[in-house]
Design goal:
With 56 residues, the protein is of the alpha+beta class. It has one domain (3-55). 38% of the residues lie in helices and 34% in strands. It is built from 1 helix and 3 strands. A 3-stranded antiparallel β-sheet has the order 1-2-3, with no helix packed on it. A hairpin with a 6-residue loop joins strand 1 (3-9) and strand 2. The longest helix is centred in the C-terminal third of the chain and has 21 residues, at 35-55. It is elongated, with a radius of gyration of 16 Å.
C-alpha cells in the first residue's frame, strides 16, 4: 500500500487540513479535520458574524 500525506490550508477557515491519499487511485482515505467539521466551522463563523452585527 502506497499512501501520501497532503497538507493544505482551508481558504475559508484558515485551518490546516491533512489528507491521507492513496497513491495509486488518488482517493482520499482520511481527512483531518473532516469535511463536515470544516463546514460546521464555517457555519459557526457566519453565525458569529450575524450575532455581532445585530448587537452593534
Amino acid at each position: 500500500m502506497s499512501r501520501n500525506l497532503s497538507f493544505s490550508i482551508d481558504k475559508d477557515t484558515g485551518k490546516t487540513v491533512v489528507k491521507v491519499v492513496d497513491d495509486t487511485t488518488k482517493e482520499v482515505i482520511r481527512q483531518i479535520p473532516s469535511a463536515e467539521m470544516l463546514a460546521i466551522s464555517k457555519a459557526l463563523d457566519k453565525l458569529q458574524g450575524l450575532l455581532i452585527k445585530e448587537h452593534a
